[in-house]
Structure to design on (475 residues):
């Protein structure tokens, strides 16, 4: 479309300020802004602005909600024990057949950690200071070696960190992975919207754009060609996790196997919530379909409800660990769109005026619209939830210190590795309160799981005895 047609569309959809602004720009800036504007479906965006910015409504929580069933961490009876054994075998078979890939959502920067760069390049391990990306790469490499087939790794970046992420991998020779088995693709964006419904500028020749949420991962897989690449490789199951959780099993045989045996299209891990107000989405059944209700939207009387044995009724919380069938993602995105609900978030968004004056707000001044991947769960024909052990699957790195921080993650990595050593007879010193009184770090390139730990130390004679305060790295 030419500039005149573009201006008509902007004016028709309540963005006449942008039409007027385009006319004031030089050729280079107007061309750049016009490219961004032409990529937007303004008919659709205008409806979203009306519903989520100009006339927002409170979250509509259904009246009839029940807690979702889940497979427990340990089997409860002989039948379930047999099922778990079959699932373990099936998971290994699928990995051996090359039908599983890893998918990491890594579009964020490390600003909350006081770190300048992609979050995946942040160092997290206690001794070797391996970055999140290196830790995952080594784990994927060992799993591929262990199960006998490559495990392709799909990494979703953002426009902000894509170039830096690719450069980081290239400088580090992909941490020993075959570069052809690492597929980068970029998350989609949405314009930031002022409280008056007008789109904001980040520069005179550019809109203020924000990532479209982790739900956008699914559409980005299609638009980038990643789904086509998966189909070409024979990938059927996608192991999804976020970049800030180094404790996660990049591929978990039991989880993969149950997903397959249950014919699930989208499966999830669950943590037993530490309390009613823990900031985890709640697994629920709504009209008989598995769904997640955000902790902020969960009615207090339901969040605090308890069973006769004292446990929370709604105790299964989501740590954002999933397996999706490739065919399910293809179905959700087959028309080039992803019909997930949009969520409103009020943010402080710096912007420039048409004259170029930069404004840094001290209060929320804009709405960012996001989609969440968990909203795909009710769209699946079959679903499954498996409990995860918190200390072995979930150590998010979101803050520099305190809860869910680099510090707490480091402690949990040490605790997990110490327990793996103790399981093969190692003596690991502990303080009076039970905490590990040394620093141990196991390389994921050698130790994918406890089976690897057992094999390694049996082969080398015996498990080590670690002294108090000692720092020990094993590879």
């Amino acid at each position: 479309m030419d500039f005149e047609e573009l201006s008509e569309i902007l004016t028709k959809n309540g963005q006449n300020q942008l039409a007027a602004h385009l006319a004031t720009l030089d050729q280079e800036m107007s061309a750049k802004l016009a490219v961004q504007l032409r990529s937007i479906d303004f008919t659709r965006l205008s409806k979203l602005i009306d519903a989520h910015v100009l006339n927002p409504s409170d979250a509509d929580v259904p009246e009839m909600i029940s807690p979702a069933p889940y497979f427990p961490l340990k089997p409860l009876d002989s039948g379930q024990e047999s099922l778990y054994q079959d699932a373990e075998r099936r998971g290994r078979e699928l990995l051996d057949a090359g039908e599983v890939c890893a998918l990491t959502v890594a579009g964020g920067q490390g600003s909350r950690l006081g770190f300048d760069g992609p979050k995946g390049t942040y160092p997290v391990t206690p001794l070797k200071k391996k970055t999140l990306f290196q830790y995952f790469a080594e784990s994927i490499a060992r799993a591929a070696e262990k199960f006998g087939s490559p495990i392709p790794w799909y990494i979703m970046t953002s426009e902000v960190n894509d170039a830096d992420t690719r450069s980081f991998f290239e400088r580090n020779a992909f941490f020993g992975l075959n570069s052809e088995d690492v597929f980068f693709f970029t998350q989609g964006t949405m314009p930031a919207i002022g409280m008056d419904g007008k789109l904001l500028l980040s520069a005179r020749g550019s809109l203020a754009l924000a990532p479209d949420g982790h739900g956008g991962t699914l559409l980005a897989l299609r638009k980038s060609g990643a789904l086509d690449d998966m189909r070409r490789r024979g990938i059927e199951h996608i192991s999804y996790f976020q970049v800030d959780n180094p404790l996660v099993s990049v591929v978990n045989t039991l989880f993969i196997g149950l997903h397959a045996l249950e014919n699930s299209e989208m499966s999830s891990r669950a943590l037993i919530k530490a309390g009613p107000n823990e900031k985890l989405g709640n697994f629920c059944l709504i009209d008989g379909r598995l769904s997640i209700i955000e902790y902020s939207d969960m009615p207090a009387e339901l969040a605090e409800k308890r069973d006769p044995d004292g446990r929370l009724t709604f105790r299964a919380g989501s740590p954002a660990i999933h397996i999706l069938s490739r065919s399910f993602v293809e179905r959700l995105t087959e028309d080039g769109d992803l019909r997930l609900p949009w969520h409103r978030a009020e943010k402080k968004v710096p912007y420039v005026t048409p004259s170029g004056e930069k404004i840094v707000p001290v209060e929320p001044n804009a709405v960012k619209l996001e989609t969440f991947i968990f909203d795909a769960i009710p769209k699946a024909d079959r679903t499954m939830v498996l409990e995860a052990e918190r200390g072995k699957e979930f150590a998010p790195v979101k803050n520099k210190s305190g809860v869910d921080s680099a510090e707490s993650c480091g402690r949990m990595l040490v605790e997990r590795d110490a327990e793996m050593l103790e399981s093969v007879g190692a003596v690991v010193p502990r303080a009076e309160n039970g905490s590990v009184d040394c620093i141990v770090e196991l390389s994921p390139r050698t130790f994918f799981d406890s089976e690897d730990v057992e094999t390694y130390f049996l082969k080398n004679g015996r498990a080590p005895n670690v002294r108090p305060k000692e720092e020990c790295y094993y590879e």
Remarks:
- Residues 399-475 form one domain.
